[in-house]
C-alpha cells in the first residue's frame, strides 16, 4: 500500500490535486471535509454534530473526526492505498492515523504539502465561495478564521512528519498541471 497525506492550508488546492493523483496512482481519496459535507446534506447524526463547528470555520472535535476516518478506512478495505485530504489536522489525529495504519500493517509513506501564501488563499476561497455554496467560503472573517486555525492547530504537523523524514513541500502556485507534476515527482520517488 502507498498512503499519502496531502497537506496544506485551506484553499491550497488539495481537493483538485487529489482528484488527479487518485487516478494516476490508483488510490482511494478520503477528504474529511467532503465526508462531513455529505453527512450535513443528508442530515445524519454525524452531520448534525459537525455542522456548527464547520460553519464557524472551527475544527470538528478529534473524537468525532477520528471515528469517522476509521469508518472510511473500513469501507475501503481492499484499497491499494489512500490519499488523505484534510486529515490529520491535529497531533491527536496524526497519532490516531499512525495506529490505524499499524492495524493494517501499513504506514504513511509521505506528507506532501502544497505551500501557498495567505493572501492568495483568501482570494482563492472568496472566489470559490461565489459558486461552491459552502457556508465557510462565503465570508472573509470565516475564511481568515480557518487560516488562523490552520496555523494554530494544524501547521505543527509539518514538524511531526519532518521528524520522521516524511515531509515534502511543493510550491502550490502555478497551473494545475504544473502542480500535479511537482507532486508526482515526489510520489514517484517514494
Ligand atoms: P478546506 O481545506 O478548504 O478548509 P475542508 O473541506 O478540508 O476544507 O474542511 C472544511 C471544514 O471541515 C473544516 O474547516 C473543519 O471544520 C472540518 N474538518 C475537515 N477535516 C477535519 C479534521 N480532520 N478535523 C477537524 N475538522 C475537520
UniProtKB/TrEMBL annotation:
Residues 31-60 are annotated as: NMP. Signal peptide: none annotated. SUPFAM superfamilies: P-loop containing nucleoside triphosphate hydrolases. The keyword Acyltransferase does not apply. InterPro entries: Adenylat/UMP-CMP_kin, Adenylat_kinase_CS, P-loop_NTPase. Its main location: cytoplasm. It holds the Pfam family ADK. Transmembrane segments: none annotated. AMP binds at residues 32, 37, 58-60, 86-89, 93, 134, 146. It comes from the Bacteria. Its EC number is 2.7.4.3. GO terms for molecular function: AMP kinase activity; ATP binding. It catalyses: AMP + ATP = 2 ADP. ATP binds at residues 11-16, 128, 174. Keywords: ATP-binding, Cytoplasm, Kinase, Nucleotide biosynthesis, Nucleotide-binding, Transferase. Pathway: Purine metabolism; AMP biosynthesis via salvage pathway; AMP from ADP: step 1/1. One of its GO terms (cellular component) is cytoplasm. Belongs to the adenylate kinase family. Monomer. Catalyzes the reversible transfer of the terminal phosphate group between ATP and AMP. Plays an important role in cellular energy homeostasis and in adenine nucleotide metabolism. Consists of three domains, a large central CORE domain and two small peripheral domains, NMPbind and LID, which undergo movements during catalysis. The LID domain closes over the site of phosphoryl transfer upon ATP binding. Assembling and dissambling the active center during each catalytic cycle provides an effective means to prevent ATP hydrolysis. This is Adenylate kinase. The gene is adk.
Amino acid at each position: 500500500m502507498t498512503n499519502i497525506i496531502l497537506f496544506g492550508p485551506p484553499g491550497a488546492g488539495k481537493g483538485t490535486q487529489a482528484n488527479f493523483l487518485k487516478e494516476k496512482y490508483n488510490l482511494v481519496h478520503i477528504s474529511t471535509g467532503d465526508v462531513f459535507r455529505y453527512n450535513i446534506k443528508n442530515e445524519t447524526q454525524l452531520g448534525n454534530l459537525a455542522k456548527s463547528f464547520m460553519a464557524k470555520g472551527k475544527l470538528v472535535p478529534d473524537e468525532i473526526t477520528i471515528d469517522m476516518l476509521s469508518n472510511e478506512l473500513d469501507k475501503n478495505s481492499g484499497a491499494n492505498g489512500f490519499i488523505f485530504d484534510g486529515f490529520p489536522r491535529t497531533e491527536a489525529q496524526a497519532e490516531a492515523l499512525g495506529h490505524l495504519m499499524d492495524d493494517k500493517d501499513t504506514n504513511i509513506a509521505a506528507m506532501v504539502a502544497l505551500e501557498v501564501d495567505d493572501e492568495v488563499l483568501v482570494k482563492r476561497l472568496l472566489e470559490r465561495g461565489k459558486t461552491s455554496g459552502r457556508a465557510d467560503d462565503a465570508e472573509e472573517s470565516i475564511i481568515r478564521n480557518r487560516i488562523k486555525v490552520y496555523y494554530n492547530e494544524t501547521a505543527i504537523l509539518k514538524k511531526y512528519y519532518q521528524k520522521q523524514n516524511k515531509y515534502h513541500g511543493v510550491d502550490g502556485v502555478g497551473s494545475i498541471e504544473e502542480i500535479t507534476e511537482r507532486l508526482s515527482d515526489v510520489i514517484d520517488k517514494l
